[in-house]
Structures are given as structure tokens and as C-alpha cells.
Automatic annotation (TrEMBL):
The gene is A08p040760.1_BraROA. Residues 82-150 form the Translation initiation factor 5A C-terminal domain. eIF-5A seems to be the only eukaryotic protein to have a hypusine residue which is a post-translational modification of a lysine by the addition of a butylamino group. NCBIfam families: eIF_5A. It comes from Brassica rapa subsp. trilocularis. InterPro entries: IF5A-like, IF5A-like_N, IF5A_C, NA-bd_OB-fold, Rib_uL2_dom2, Translation_prot_SH3-like_sf. Keywords: Hypusine, Protein biosynthesis. Translation factor that promotes translation elongation and termination, particularly upon ribosome stalling at specific amino acid sequence contexts. Binds between the exit (E) and peptidyl (P) site of the ribosome and promotes rescue of stalled ribosome: specifically required for efficient translation of polyproline-containing peptides as well as other motifs that stall the ribosome. Acts as ribosome quality control (RQC) cofactor by joining the RQC complex to facilitate peptidyl transfer during CAT tailing step. This is Eukaryotic translation initiation factor 5A.
Length: 155
């Protein structure tokens, strides 16, 4: 995305969902927006064509797992998503993938997790066994997804 095309989208709470970063400074294991999707960078290479350096990025969409690719001039700005991970205590999980989570502040959050997702099966199994679970929710660009969990001991 060239500097002329760069724009900042705001979330519902008025915070920017992305920030600009020069393509040449983005590294593997960082984040980038490719084709409008928040991605974790898994490959970066630099090429020079006709005296112009370009960065080739391969990213994995953090929500869908899709592989996306993009080539950007080295000195142009790219959008980088603000990615946050928050831990919640699992309060309840239903057979249809409806999950109720409890924040440390006492506020509840409702999310859905696909029942065919292996993570759902593991979380459901742990819950059915009466284990206390801490669930990690990753959020970026207005989307949220349960990405991990761990068993917690008695307080």
C-alpha cells in the first residue's frame, strides 16, 4: 500500500485498528495487513528490480489460517494491525460452541467457537471434567477468536 493510499480505520471505541510501518522494517513473526486481513508474517524477502527494492511478504491470517502474499516497495508504509491477547476464565461452554468467559474485572464476554475446531473439543473436554480453564482471546481489527487455553490450579 503506497503512502498515498494509507488510511487509518477506527474501531467502535474510536481507537485505530492499524498503524503505519515502513515495509522494509517488518520482520518475520511480526504482523501485517494483507488484502485487508490481519496476518502473522511467516516469510519476508527483499528483491531489487530496476533499482527499486521491494519486500515480498507471506502471512497467515490470524483468524482463518489462510496464507496470503503481497509485494510492497521497500520504503512504502504498510498497515500493521494492533493485535491483543487477553486471558479470561472459562465460565461456561455449550455443545453448540457458545462460550461465556469471565474477565478479572467480573465482566462477562460471549463468544462462539466452531464445534469442529480441535480447540473446542479440548476446552469442552476440560470443562466437562470440572477443570478450571484460562482461555486466551486474540483480537485485531474488530475480530476476536479463542486461540489458546490452559488449566489453572486452585486459587
Amino acid at each position: 500500500m503506497s503512502d498515498e493510499e494509507h488510511h487509518v480505520e477506527l474501531s467502535d471505541d474510536g481507537e485505530p485498528m492499524t498503524y503505519p510501518q515502513q515495509a522494509g522494517t517488518i520482520r518475520e513473526n511480526g504482523y501485517i495487513v494483507i488484502k485487508g486481513r490481519p496476518c502473522k508474517v511467516v516469510e519476508v524477502s527483499t528483491t531489487e528490480e530496476d533499482g527499486n527494492a521491494k519486500c515480498y511478504f507471506v502471512g497467515i491470517d490470524i483468524f482463518t489460517g489462510d496464507k496470503l502474499e503481497e509485494t510492497v516497495p521497500y520504503s512504502d508504509n504498510c498497515d500493521v494491525p494492533h493485535v491483543n491477547s487477553t486471558e479470561y476464565r472459562l465460565f461456561d461452554i455449550s455443545e453448540d460452541g457458545h462460550v461465556i468467559l469471565l474477565a478479572q474485572t467480573g465482566i462477562t464476554k460471549d463468544l462462539e467457537i466452531p464445534t469442529d475446531d480441535p480447540l473446542f473439543q479440548q476446552i469442552k473436554s476440560g470443562s466437562d471434567e470440572g477443570k478450571e480453564l484460562l482461555v486466551t482471546v486474540t483480537s485485531a481489527m474488530g475480530e476476536e477468536k479463542i486461540t489458546a487455553f490452559m488449566e489453572i490450579g486452585p486459587e
